Amino acid sequence: MNLSTLVREDMHALYRFLVLTRMLEERLETLFKQGHIVGGLYRSLGQEATAVGTAYALQDGDWLAPSIRDAGALYVRGLPPIAMLRQYTAREASPCAGKDNTNHFTIPELGLLGPISPLGTQLCVLNGISLTFRQRGEPRVCMTYQGEGASRTGTSHEGFAMAAALDLPMVIVLEHNRWSFGTPSYRASAVEDWADTAGAYGLPVRSVDGNDLLQVYEAAREAVERARSGGGPGVIVAETYRMSGHAQHDSQKYIPSEELDEWRARDPIGRFERVLLEDGWLSDAGLAEIRDDVDQELTRAVDTVLSEPHPPAESSRTRVYADPRQDPPEPWTRTLATESEAR
Amino acid sequence: MAVITYRDALNRALREEMERDDSVFLLGEEVGEYDGAYKVSKGLLDQFGEWRVRDTPIAENGFAGLGVGAAMVGLRPVVEFMTWNFALLAYDAIVNSAAKMYHMSGGQYNVPIVFRGPGGSALQLAAQHSQVPDPWYANIPGLKVCAPATPADALGLLKSAIRDDDPVVFIEGELLYNVKGEVPDGEHLVPIGVAEVKRPGADVTIVAHGKMVHVALQAAEHLAKELEVEAEVVDLRSLRPLDTASVIESVQRTHRAVVVEEGWPISGIGAQVVDDIQREAFDSLDAPVARVSGLDVPMHYARSLEKLIVPGPEPVIEAVKHVCYLD
């Protein structure tokens, strides 16, 4: 494996992103139980290495369109952890001002296109972004993610086919996490080796152990370099496992416990810690220091966010049209009620 | 003033806007090499090249979504659907991505994109190929919807749509492409969301849009000649935003109204217009407002049945007689 590009600072940063992803989601679970979060809460438990490792191969100016299980990729691309807390708890100061939910982040400055709820469309929209950059001669790479379940939609097939036909500088990460909500992937598809699917679009593909951070990073670096140098799109198949339910309400009782035990032993964070220790990148104390630092940052961030306001009532009619004069008027019933109160 | 077809007016609008602004580009099935399934894009590939006139695979949601992405980062795509019937496959990209991106990103991205193509029935194309999509899009906040009836409005509205900073659904009449009309020679822009009186009259207001404007005008000529009833025909031109004020102003003068549309009656455009009239012009009305719409069935293939489904002048004339108490 060619890891010559990664130096000590990288290894520390990668570890920090991994534990940040997991610890922030643990905070979110607590906030959910306390009633501060009501909508869907989607964890990336067990899949952190795929998101962090792939996104780490991108450069400034590149674009990222993650799925709901790629929170780690957002932090790598510069999303402040407090923004995740603000958005999940629907604060006015969240990047989308309380308009979009949970971990959907669409932020131009960071090159982020958030998940689009009906699966597959996000890939098509990213194709358009990528096409525009290429048309302008800007050497930006666009990276996106799909679970193997999402890849079964007709729109996903259209997105893969068009990325290939237009030869766009893209990297598509197919996360084989074995479950689409409560349906196992073998029941939704006859495909056994998900790398085979790339052949349908004429795309190069590389399969990796998605729980091995450095293997993921290396495959992503290769695909990103190929895309940037005009080699067109590539697919990475990350073999991984969804270790928590689809969302917070899903206790995933349908998963056999021995299967979870088997994958728990392959936990991506534990495996990366062993690499860091064995190869001398960090000591036990060094690992603990990073975890403590993240923990303190999150405590401060949670305290800050919970003191911040939710969006004001008047914003219920705003940002529908680019020209605010097109936004809808106050409902006449509300106007009447206000007049009646005034009387 | 030149007299040109509706098709050539659309072609002129595309050409003028592509010449004016490098960020405007056209994509869709058959728009390039084939000059468009209805020849609206004739000659554009030769003039602007394949980067700006891009043929796509048969993948409606795929290329509509691609257009949204391009619009988010600075281009002004015009996405052509071969017909609006096939755009049902792209309803997700139009409704979930184009219409909501500005809102869901908290105002960080606007989506200046035009989705255009023919809508409504043509001749004997049956139920899956003859649909009126107007209310499906007029219902969606975040979209603007245009449905021009004449070459001049096709030219002026499409140019405005391309310059608009929000997504515009532009519904052309499949049977209107060969309709001829006068078009101003210089720069011609028609604002989105402004209706126009196509025929003045004092006795009754007929509200229509798209192909039904022509039906309303035929009905009005008949009514004037045979019954000495002068009908005012108000062409909505845009369905979102809807120019309620122009309709109300007309009804306040005529005191009677008939609302005509090609599509199905339930939750149709006419339902909205009638609601606006009864709320804002109740005291001006001398009769209940009447609606004329397509028959509430999937379109038939047989011409003998098809003719019974799409409104022609006869039901409009009957409706006018009814609201004028002449029946």
Summarize the entry for a quick read.
The complex is a heterodimer of chains A (343) and B (327). Chain A is an alpha/beta fold and 343 residues long. Helices cover 44% and strands 9% of the residues of chain A.
Structural topology:
The complex is a heterodimer of chains A (343) and B (327).
Chain A: H1 8-33, H2 48-55, E1 63-65, H3 71-76, H4 81-88, H5 121-135, E2 142-147, H6 154-165, E3 170-176, E4 179-180, E5 183-184, H7 185-188, H8 196-199, E6 205-209, H9 213-228, E7 234-239, H10 257-264, H11 268-278, H12 284-306, H13 332-342
Parallel strand pairs in A: 1-2, 2-3, 3-7, 6-7
Antiparallel strand pairs in A: 4-5
Helix pairs in contact in A: 1-2, 1-11, 1-12, 2-9, 4-12, 5-6
Chain B: E1 2-5, H1 6-20, E2 24-28, H2 44-48, E3 53-55, H3 60-72, E4 76-80, H4 91-98, H5 101-104, E5 114-119, H6 134-138, E6 144-146, H7 151-163, E7 168-173, E8 180-183, E9 196-199, E10 204-208, H8 211-227, E11 231-235, E12 238-240, H9 244-254, E13 257-260, H10 269-280, E14 290-292, H11 303-309, H12 313-323
Helix pairs in contact in B: 1-7, 3-4, 8-12, 9-10
DSSP strand count of chain A: 7
Name the CATH superfamily classification of chain A: Thiamin diphosphate (ThDP)-binding fold, Pyr/PP domains
Write down the domain tally of chain A. Answer: 1
Oligomeric status: heterodimer
Helix content of chain A: 40-55%
Strands of the widest sheet of chain A, in order across it, are 1-2-3-7-6
Give the distance, in angstroms, between the N- and C-terminal Cα atoms of chain A: 77 Å
**According to CATH, what is the topology of the largest domain in chain B?**
Rossmann fold
Rounded radius of gyration of chain A (Å): 21 Å
Number of domains of chain B: 2
How would you describe the shape of chain A?
globular
- Largest interface by Cβ-Cβ < 8 Å: A-B, 45 and 41 residues
Cα-atom Rg of chain B, whole angstroms?
20 Å
Strand content of chain A: 5-15%
